[in-house]
Amino acid sequence: MKKIRWGTLIAYIVLAIFAIITVFPFIYMILGGLMSFRETTTIPPSIIPKHFEWANYTKVFAQAPFGRYFLNTFITASVTTIVSLFNALLGAFAMVNLKFKGKGVVQIVLLSLLMVPGEAIIFTNYNTIAQMGLLNTYIGLVLPFLTSIFYMYYLQSYFGSISQTIYKTAMINGASDWEYIWRILVPMSKGGLFTVALLSFISGWNSFLWPLLVTNEDSMRLLNNGLTSFASDAGSETQLQLAAATLTVLPILILYFIFRKQIIRGVVRNDLKG
């Protein structure tokens, strides 16, 4: 019993240490956004602000078109989420339920493409977008992300848990593939589809490198790129950067706390058991 108790105690201590390490930067970001410039740059650093500078959040919107950044980020994240989810749904359905010549070759090619890092093709994509005249446009921001092999394979493993008998029965009863997808497959796979949608939205919301390459106008920048608005040759306004970073992260945290049960359900696939 003593060994078990000591082991449990050590496990809790280790978990607490890692939790503090993980959460502390986020807590400091929130508190730093409420500090004065001097407090954010002092050494050793201040942890708790002496006076809560709520005006920092007003200055964020006054100094940069942060409302526009929010709108741009929401539009691009929403479009990429909807289109990539639709494409992943159809691709995963085809790989699981349809039989066609060369299916194995297609799967091998897609799997090999999944192993190629995005950074390896980002400049090729940039040249393509530039030649098409799509720089500083919403289309240029979302076009390379309208499909995802990773999401397709995730849904493929999810759909594979559904008995093929259901699909065959639907076909015997005269249902088309389209009807099977929307009337049977989608309702049975809500957890997985919701997980893919949320992951895609978070990825689009946190996008940084690609928008940095294809936009150079304030009117088309996204939130993460807009943080540079609070830096100049004279130095960075760190208190405003921290306040802006807090505003950037806040929507994602709200989504997570609202839909955390659906995320867990989608990962463990409880709704497909039995």
Search tags:
274 residues, MetI-like fold, 2 domains, two-stranded antiparallel ribbon, 70% helix, disordered C terminus, MetI-like, ABC superfamily ATP binding cassette transporter,permease protein, membrane, transmembrane helix, cell membrane
What does this entry look like structurally?
- With 274 residues, the protein is mainly α.
- The protein has 2 domains: 47 residues, no CATH class; 170 residues, MetI-like fold (Orthogonal Bundle).
- The protein is 70% helix and 1% strand.
- It has a two-stranded antiparallel ribbon.
- Helix 11 packs antiparallel against helix 14.
- The longest helix is centred in the N-terminal third of the chain and has 32 residues.
- The C terminus is likely disordered.
- Its main location: membrane.
Write the layout of secondary structure elements.
Blueprint: H1 2-32, H2 37-41, H3 55-63, H4 66-97, H5 103-114, H6 122-131, H7 138-142, H8 149-159, H9 164-172, H10 177-188, H11 190-205, H12 209-214, H13 223-226, E1 231-232, E2 235-236, H14 238-268
Tell me the major beta sheet.
Answer: 2 strands, antiparallel
Q: Please state the average pLDDT score.
A: 85
Termini separation = 37 Å
| Total E-strand runs | 2
Percentage beta strand = under 5%
| Oligomerization status of the protein chains | single chain
Radius of gyration: 24 Å
CATH superfamily of the largest domain: MetI-like
CATH class bucket of the largest domain: Mainly Alpha
Q: Fraction of residues in helices?
A: over 70%
Order of helices and strands: HHHHHHHHHHHHHEEH
Low-confidence stretches: 270-274
**In total, how many domains does the architecture comprise?**
2
